[in-house]
Design brief:
This protein is α+β, with helices and mostly antiparallel strands. The chain has helices spanning 69-81, 105-120, 127-142, 148-155, 189-202, 204-226, 233-246, 252-263, 289-298; strands at residues 2-13, 24-40, 48-52, 57-60, 89-95, 159-161, 168-169, 176-182, 268-272, 279-284, 303-309. The structure holds (3R)-3-hydroxy-3-methyl-5-(phosphonooxy)pentanoic acid.
């Protein structure tokens, strides 16, 4: 039996612009995890049974369509390892990462499966390979993903990410506390990314200007985090949120939570991830975190997570 886990993630700055080659910052969130266990069982060789109770999926691999993300990731690891006839196996998948809400649940499940299966066969894949294979599966979830989710979740470190460039892990000089608020509204990233692409195609100059401003914010934020000037992050979050509003990816529910966080004393707040639902984040002082969390729950948040980013929270 082999078990592997992978954390969730949150984008701090730069979502959407990152799809077009601009930088973004993301950090792992270890309070939520995908956990995968692989066990040998009785049965016919080659038969792989998938149990994913969170999504009520109990199925043989061969009964799933080949583009089903769970089937695709299992097939990809078998072919990467050159295994054509595995022993009968059960792949058990559970996750506490909310689905379609910007916390990277799809990538985390893929990465935990890649690691658990490759370890089970005694050929653990190196991080670079895990991230690349998970990226292929991300394309099924997202259409044209930037690759930020599979990167930050594979390395489980704060990442300054630019599409198609070597990853840059950044240092966190001074811990800072984030409050994550979930609207409870599932919003598939693929659709929102597609809508932004149409707007960008219609008004390329305006959108490139917005993305450029986002990139400036991401660069300033990285500097602030690396130099311990975390008090600067709140204003940068507010600026980034205003640019995301211009991209049309906010929603009434996200606005309500962002406003509630600011009104309750957060130093800044923004939506995080694809938008139109999913999660928002706020920069909070540890002493205020519970109070602001209560304000978010009162304003309709389905759940909140308080997390301290230390750079070592892996
Ligand atoms: O945080 P998520 O999984 O919703 O990812 C969205 C991030 C985008 O920049 C909007 C898309 C991407 O592929 O980077």
């Amino acid at each position: 039996m082999t078990t592997s886990s992978a954390p969730g993630k949150i984008i701090l700055f730069g979502e959407h612009a990152v799809v077009y080659g601009f930088p973004a910052l993301a950090v792992p969130i270890t309070q939520v995890q995908a956990i995968v266990t692989v066990t040998e069982r009785d049965g016919t060789p080659g038969e792989i049974f998938i149990e994913a109770p969170d999504i009520s999926l109990f199925s043989n691999l061969e009964s799933l369509p080949s583009d089903h993300p769970l089937a695709a990731v299992i097939q990809s690891v078998l072919s990467a390892l050159g295994i054509s006839s595995p022993p009968p196996l059960t792949v058990h998948v559970t996750s506490t990462i909310p689905v379609a809400s910007g916390l990277g649940s799809g990538a985390a499940v893929s990465i935990a499966i890649l690691r658990a299966l490759s370890a089970f066969f005694g050929q653990p894949l190196p991080d670079e390979r895990v991230s690349a294979l998970a990226y292929e599966v991300e394309k099924l979830h997202h259409g044209t993903p930037s690759g930020i989710d599979n990167t930050v979740i594979t390395y489980a470190k704060p990442v300054y990410f630019i599409k198609n460039q070597p990853i840059e892990i950044f240092q966190v000089a001074k811990p800072f506390t984030l409050l994550i608020g979930d609207t409870g509204i599932a919003s598939p990233t693929r659709a929102v990314v597609g809508d932004v692409r149409k707007l960008w195609e219609a008004e390329p100059v305006r959108f490139e200007t917005i993305f450029d401003s986002v990139a400036g914010i991401a660069r300033k934020a990285r500097k602030a985090i690396e130099s311990g000037e975390t008090h600067l992050l709140g204003a940068l979050m507010n600026e980034n949120h205003a640019l995301l509003q211009e991209m049309t990816v906010s929603s009434p529910e996200l606005e309500r939570l962002v406003e509630a966080a600011r009104a309750a004393g957060a130093d800044g707040a923004k939506l995080s991830g694809g938008g139109r639902g999913g999660n928002m984040i706020a920069l909070v002082r540890p002493a205020n975190a519970k109070k602001i969390s209560a304000a978010l729950l009162k304003s309709g948040a389905r759940q909140t997570i308080i997390t301290t980013i230390t750079g070592l929270n892996v």
